[in-house]
Structures are given as structure tokens and as C-alpha cells.
Amino acid sequence: MINYIKKFIINQRCISCNSIKTEPYYYICPKCIESLTLVDTLEKICPFCHDTWINKGVCQNCFNKKPLWQNIYTLYSYKENVMKQLIHLYKFKDSSLAEHDLILLIKPHLIPFKDYHFIITPCSAKTLKRLGYNPVTRIIQKLGLEYSESLSKNQTQTIKKLKRQERLETSKTMIFHPEKINTTKKLIIVDDVFTTGSTIIQASLALNNHNFLSFDILCFFRS
Ligand SMILES: [Zn+2]
Ligand SMILES: [Zn+2]
Description:
Elements: H1 2-10, H2 30-34, E1 54-55, E2 58-59, E3 72-77, H3 81-92, H4 96-106, E4 116-120, H5 125-131, H6 135-142, E5 146-148, E6 151-153, H7 164-169, E7 174-176, E8 186-194, H8 198-208, E9 216-222
Helix pairs in contact: 3-4
The structure holds zinc ion (2 copies).
One zinc ion binds next to helix 2.
């Protein structure tokens, strides 16, 4: 109800085509949503990391290296500007309207995962301070899915100072707290955007350190 009042007051238009007919969304219209790219409709993607940069059958992101996870699921391509804007509004402007839109976009794709236990990747300290919550947790929570914030960043390491390769190979950049999870369910690590995969790799290694070897990956967006 509050959102409808907000829309009425600010006369929210589609951020992509400027249409005022955005219902049931606020920042995006149903027409523009139809033009968004779903990762599983892309012709050529790497089965291990969903990258599209494949050269002579070799993925240029993961080089076909056997992944640490079983299955990977990514929903929308992050190449479209409208998605970047929506995420920006959600993460940086604390917009309840953007949150509403993102949840509507993601919800139908998460039906197959309703019996999973979601392990949320930690967000940056800056984001947590700015919003007061982890934006991924918020979406999973609003979708009524079971989750835990059972991963934390290892504060004893200055991760940013490490080179990318070192970062990927250092297994203790993230810490897993197995006592916080429900081990009777299938586990899935969730993050918002999959870019190089370094966050997901660190999270996977943290689970491996506790002998959790069987889990899936879900990222809402694949850049
Ligand atoms: Zn539009
Ligand atoms: Zn790959």
C-alpha cells in the first residue's frame, strides 16, 4: 500500500523506456521485462561458470576447471543497463520499490528451490553499514525461503591487497559456520551477481574446509 502511494506521488516511470504503465512493477515495465535476457536462453554458456566467453570450446573465465560446486544456476544476464540500474537503486538508494521489482523478477525462478537451505554470501561492511542488512538476505527472506548467514569474511586478512590469483587460491578468506545451517536439506550458496566467481569460489572453499562437498550455486545475475 505504501509503495502504491509512493508511486503515485513520485509518478514513477520505467527507467528503460519512460513508460508510465509499469504495473505490477515500479521501475520497469512489463514490456521491457520481456526483452531482458535469461541466462538459460543463451546459446553458448560455460556449464561450470555460465560465462559466454568461450574460445575453441574453452571457457576464458574458468578454463573448464572442474568447479567446487555441483550445479550452477544464474537467472538474468547482467549486461543490460536496466538491471544494473535496478540493482543500484536497491543497494545504494535503499529503495523499497526496487526491492519489490527485484523480488517479482526473481520469485518465479526460485520455485524449484523451495526445499533448499540457502547459504548467503556476506556483503561488504560498507553495504551492511549503509543499508543495515545484507541485500541478498533480504530478498531470500521476503521470498519465504529457508536461509542462514553462515559465512563470514575473515577479517584477519587484508584480502584486497592480494592479487586476484592469490585471492582465489587462499582458502581462508571466508569462514563457514556449519552449526548455523540445516543439514537435512540440500544446500545452495546464493549471491546477487556472479562476475569472476571469486566470491563464490571463496564461499565454496570455506564449505569444503568443513567437509561440505555437495552443494549448488545460485546467482541472480551473471555479468
Ligand atoms: Zn519500459
Ligand atoms: Zn567457465
